[in-house]
Structure formats: structure tokens, C-alpha cells
Amino acid sequence: MDDLKQKYLSQIADAGDESALEDIRLAAVGKKGEVALKMRELGKMTPEERQVAGPALNALKDEINSALAAKKAALGDAALDERLRSEWLDVTLPTRHQRQGSIHPVSQVTEELTAIFAEMGFSVAEGPRIDTDWYNFDALNIPGHHPARAEMDTFYMARGEGDDRAPHVLRTHTSPVQIRTMEAEGAPLRIICPGGVYRADYDQTHTPMFHQVEGLAIDKDLSMANLKWVLEEFFSAFFEIDGIKTRFRASHFPFTEPSAEVDIQCSWVDGQLRIGEGDGWMEVLGSGMVHPKVLQAGGIDPNEWQGFAFGMGIDRIAMLKYGIPDLRAFFDADLRWLRHYGFASLDQPNLHGGLSR
Ligand code: DAH
After folding, report:
1. What CATH number did the domain enclosing 112 receive?
2. Is the CB–ligand 1 distance for residue 154 below 6 Å?
């Protein structure tokens, strides 16, 4: 029995893994193991012999079982140690560098002005960038012979021979959205229409595609006074300067009567533009009372309703607010420019949290 004990205890001590240990268990204390065989021999013994051998065999079985359990636990600990060693991770290492995109100034400024006009009850309306010449010109009281039509440097869509659809243009301004929205919603109305527009023109302050925002308010008793209040309210909020002054200069647009070009107060100090101070003026938009023919084209009765409209360049006010000198760079997709002038993607502009940080 001592031999058996020595043999199995040393095998257990040498076992390298759990399956070797299981083989030893079967050979030693399994149903057909050596200890079981010895137990079977008890029957052939005399009662005296059995009294000594029985408990001794049980003790041997217990001893082997507990040696197996101890070894099994030790092997488990070693395996865990090994796993912890091999799967070790240095969580203090710097993360891999990930480039983050930024919000383009045009998108940022569109969000900003949308937030400001929303506060004054204007909702956003949109229209197609490819539109008929009727929406882009005629409905806005710009007939075929009108000089404004020639001055717009319009891109016309190519037409196949025999194509008798109405001529289509890349819209030269956002004003056609006025007509589409009047048709769709009727009066009263309070909308802004931001979006891309196209003209064949290219220099430091002109690109063939740029952005405008149109404003339109129709009601029973709106006047130029309401227009002026809305615009001054807008510019103060947009440039984050209280009480910006505007100057209305008589002008002419086919779609408004009377018409005015609007300047905001500014000054030049050491070649730097300062908005909202001094005695200089900077032209920022065109506006006026909506022409009766335009209301009619939109299906609204000019004897019952009247309103004001304005149109302003989004890229241009972005350049003014954020000190961006060249318009062409807006559309070059140069990553260095985008990183420099772009905005953090999670900063949603709103009037209470600040328009831009
Ligand atoms: N559509 C004009 C342009 O592109 C801008 C404009 C002027 C829009 C006066 C208006 C307005 O609504 O009333 O130059």
C-alpha cells in the first residue's frame, strides 16, 4: 500500500496539465483503478486482516483524491497566471491618433441663422437647385427681356433636339423658393430658404456655386418697419453685438416694390474690419416689400396680403463673422483650411448656449 501511495503521489506531483491528472485519477481511484481492485480483495481476507486493510485502503483513496484536488487547483492557478501574463494590456498607453472631421463654415453659419430666425417664428423651406426659368425668373417678375435676367450669368441646362420641356436653369438665387412655398402653403407665411445657388462668375469674392438665404414673411399688415426690426434683430444675434445699426438704401429689384439694399454699421481699424461700430457701412443684402405680381404668381391675392422679402449671401456673412478672406477657399476641400476654419461637430449653435464657441 505504501508503494501505491508513493507511486500515485509522485505521478500527481509531476502531472503537467488537467488531462494527465484525469488519467492518473482513473488509474488510481477510478472504478477499475488500482485501489478499487485492492478493495475487491478485501472479501478474500480474514476478518482481522480486513479490519486493518479496509480503513487503510479508504485512507489511501482519500489521500490520493485530495492530492488530485490540490494539484488541480494549482494547475488552474498557473493557467490563470499565464493568461493574465499573456493578455496584459497597458491602459496608460496613448490612444491611436484619429482625425476628426469638422463642420464647414457654410454649414455652421446656416445652422446659426436658422436658430436665430426660428426664434422669430421663421421655418425653413427648400426648393430644387435645378429649376425652370419660370420659377427662377418669370414668376419673380423678371420677364425674358429684363436686364436682370442677362446680368445673372445663368447656367442653362443642355436641351436635346425636340425637347419641349420648359427650359431649366441652375437656380441663380434662392428667390424661386418664395414662389414654390407660396404655392404649396398659401398665406400667412414666415420662412427662410437657405441653399446653394449658381452663377458663371469666379474671382476672390465670387464662385460659380455659392449660398444664399432668402427670407419671406406674408401677412395682412406687414411693413418695411417689420423688415427692419427683423434684420436688426438678426444681425445683432448673428454677430453677437447688441444694437447693430442698419442703413436702408433705395434700390431696385424686379420682385420687390419698394426695394432696398441694406448695409450694416462697420469701421476699418488698421486694415481690420469691425462690425457694429464706427461710421462706415457694409452692404449685406437686398430686400423690399414683395411685388404684387410675385404674390399673384405664388397664388396669393395681393389685395388681401402683403409682406417683405430679403436675400443675403451665406458665404459672405460667414467671411465677415469669422474673418475669412477668400471665398474660393470655401470650396477647395483643402483639409488644412477645413481644420483651421471648421467647427467642432458637437457644438450645435443655439441662442441660449452661444452660437459658436
Ligand atoms: N434674389 C436677389 C439676388 O440674388 C436677392 C434678393 C434681393 C432677394 C431682394 C430678395 C429681395 O428676396 O427682396 O441678388
Report:
1. 3.30.930.10
2. no
Query: Is position 94 within any domain?
Result: no
Closest C-alpha to 289, from 227, 201, 196: 227
Q: pLDDT digits over 21-80, tens only?
A: 999 999 999 889 888 888 888 888 888 888 888 898 899 999 999 999 999 999 889 889
Secondary element (H or E) of residue 288: strand 280-290
Closest residue by CA, ligand 1 atom 13: 287
With CA atoms as reference, report the closest residue to 56 among 4, 104, 92: 4
Annotated binding-site residue? 257: yes
Contact criterion met (CB below 8 Å) for 211 and 225 = no
Ligand 1 centre distance from Cα of residue 255 (Å): 8
Question: 266-307: per-residue pLDDT in tens?
Answer: 998 888 889 999 999 999 999 999 999 999 999 999 999 999
Q: How far apart are CA 253 and CA 310, in angstroms?
A: 11
User: Band of the pLDDT at 226, cuts 50, 70, 90?
Assistant: very high
Q: Is position 204 within any domain? A: yes
What's the rounded Cα separation, in Å, for the pair 223 and 230? Answer: 11
